[in-house]
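Reviewer 2 asked us to include a model.

Predict the structure of this chain.
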Amino acid sequence: GKDISLGNSWKADVIIDKSYPENAHIDNYRDFALYFQDEDNILGTSFMPYLQNVAGLTGVNYRLEPWSYREDSGCELGNMFTACVAADADPATPTIKAHAGDNVMINVFGAHNEQNQMFNVDGHQWRRHLNQDGSDMIDVEEFGGSEYIQAFFNAGGTYKNPGTYLWMNARTPYQQAGQWGYMKVLPSGDRGILPLGKATVKGVKTASQPDEAEKSASKTGDDKLSMR
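Predicted model (structure tokens):
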């Protein structure tokens, strides 16, 4: 509910003002920013012996959740991504939250990178080219230093399923170093976060639930994810 239009935040609910003609086909969406950083310029190169662990500073939004910390706290390799740390159920990295079916935009930035990385969101796909009709749908995308990705999709995937999903660096050594986190898709009506609501003439939030016609339309328009 807080207005952050003049502030700084890695997350925001974008409420569209429909009084502007250029916004006619844009709906409210949840916007997130993830800044990836790494300093290792040797990992993965022809340097013998091959390195197994990432060197230097690694993080996302100045945070990280390394596997070694979770192992020391009682996690086993088979449940590394579950809530197995006694101190805190969620990782230290940003936790993305949305209601099932919400439009979500994740902006991924190569804030400081020595190597190319691979961004992935479990169970979700987005357009390779955001505003291109018929663009390839992808679930992992490469980025490097000073590059960015705009992953725009419906929370919960094609069938809008609630649950806890993972966002991550798909390069395993960087996952191990801590570049991963949760995306929690909450059931519609869950009060853990404010409802996104529909875009209105003046951009006012409404807490209405989707009607049957909207649910039916969503099943036949899964590729209609555009910011135009």
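The domain at 11-220 is CATH 2.60.40.420 (Immunoglobulin-like). The helical segments are 67-72, 172-177, 212-220. We have added this to the supplementary material.
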